[in-house]
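Case study.
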Amino acid sequence: MKAIVHIGLKPGVLDPQGRAIARSLVDLGFDEVSGARQGKVIEIDISGKNADQARESVTKMCEKLLANTVIESYRIDIEG
Amino acid sequence: MKTAVIVFPASNCDRDAAMALEKVTGRAAEMIWHRETEIPSDIDFVVIPGGFSYGDYLRCGAIASRSPIVKDLVKKAESGLPVAGFCNGFQILAETGLLPGALMRNKNLKFVCRPERLQITNANTRYTSAYAGTEEVVFPVAHHDGNYFADDKTLNKLEKEGRILFKYADNPNGSARDIAGICNEAGNVFGMMPHPERAIDPQHGGTDGINFFKSIIESI
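After joint prediction, the assembly is written out as follows.
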């Protein structure tokens, strides 16, 4: 199985990189852009019986290492 | 008096920290590699140095904060061992949870490297007592991720309890409430982005950092 973890800054936490990206997009003529948030994606190859078990285990990984929950939130997708 | 400096792959202020400790204690600091599993029991004070531990992978300080030696350090710090982290060391301490909050990318997205004026906001602590009567010091800063963040409740608590020891006179990174350095509730764990260990010799451009080390060493 593959677990795909999306990590990003929590709403309300200033994301200067996202802001710079949004400004640059507007500079390129994409006037419809009103904001951007930058995050990261981590793909984890994981063995296990079922998706629920994998999700439970990846949630622990997020809490222990992958995300800093003071400033970041995460979302987990399980594939295959 | 025995002191130690933890060394991670890509630490780059470990020698500076060791020099500062030796200058103040008169005794060479022990260098402890990150794969070690225990801080020797006769160590009185530990410095987590600046640098780019593990290449800043994942988040600054994240991987280091889960390394074998830091696990033991956290345990000992919780039972009272004095521990100070500068720059990457502060990021590591925040990642362990020993200090509240997190260090984010600088607000202006720039790596900032310059001498920084700091106000001493509490000179009545184990890390600042030798500064009694001093209002301002200059320590160098050199970082890309020093923008201190914590929620308002945490910031209020830090302020109320006098746990903000240094504030920036001219905030270089967007830190909440101009915070440069904080300590834990018990006062034995301290972290700051600026580098007192790089302000201990006239050739550094200043010696304001000496009293930082004097304070904590004399308190032990």
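Observations recorded in class. Helices of chain B lie at 14-25, 68-78, 88-96, 152-160, 210-218. Chain B touches chain A at residues 58-59, 62, 66, 94-95, 100-102, 104-109, 149-150, 174 (CB under 8 Å). We will return to this complex in the next lecture.
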